[in-house]
Design goal:
The chain has 178 residues and is α/β, with parallel strands linked by helices. It has one domain: HAD superfamily/HAD-like (Rossmann fold, 3-Layer(aba) Sandwich), CATH 3.40.50. 42% of the residues lie in helices and 15% in strands. The strands form two sheets. The chain has a six-stranded parallel beta sheet. Strands 2-3 form a two-stranded antiparallel sheet. The radius of gyration is 15 Å and the shape is globular.
């Protein structure tokens, strides 16, 4: 990464107060698994979960904006304490506009991480657009930052650590673990 790109990323991260995430392909590897009963199963990465908890404990809000609905997702969000959950969404950018209005936020205060084409419009409207390593090439082109890890395999943890470190919150965040 060039020094200019690094400075731009720093500039975009400092005002962040909200991280929004897509689910399938970001919090999961994008696989959709059905049990014999027809129940949809999702596999979440525990390191991503800890990253999200650390981010929220540091005062950065986390929300979900996804096109699919899933009981597994709702359970994971409940487990992590994420209460900004928008699922079954057709227009992710419209959700962002509602959040900005309701929370009194500016687009510069929001990051969004995505992996596929339905994520591009919301990515264009936030201050810090992120793509996971295995995202579609058009999504990567819309991103300011591409994670080193793939979706469902630590990409969200990468984002959380980058935000915490850039904002100078990392030392006090990890202090309780040392």
């Amino acid at each position: 990464m060039t020094d200019v790109a690094h400075l731009e990323i720093q500039k975009r991260i400092l005002p962040l107060s909200l991280l929004l995430l897509d689910v399938d392909g970001v919090l999961t590897d994008g696989s959709i698994v059905y049990a014999d009963s027809g129940e949809e199963l999702k596999f979440f990465n525990v390191r991503d979960g800890l990253g999200l908890r650390m981010l929220m404990d540091a005062g950065i809000a986390v929300g979900i904006v996804t096109g699919r609905s899933s009981g597994a997702l709702l359970k994971r969000c409940e487990n992590l304490g994420i209460d900004l959950v928008f699922h079954g969404v057709k227009d992710k950018r419209a959700v962002l506009e509602t959040l900005l209005r309701d929370k009194g936020l500016k687009p510069e205060a929001v990051a969004f991480a995505g992996d596929d084409l339905p994520d591009i419009q919301i990515m264009k409207a936030v201050g810090f657009p992120v793509a996971v390593a295995n995202a579609d090439s058009l999504v990567k082109a819309a991103a300011l930052y591409v994670t080193p890890s793939a979706g469902g395999h630590g990409a969200v943890r990468d984002i959380c650590e980058l935000i915490l470190k850039t904002k100078g919150l990392w030392p006090q965040t990890v202090e309780r673990f040392l």
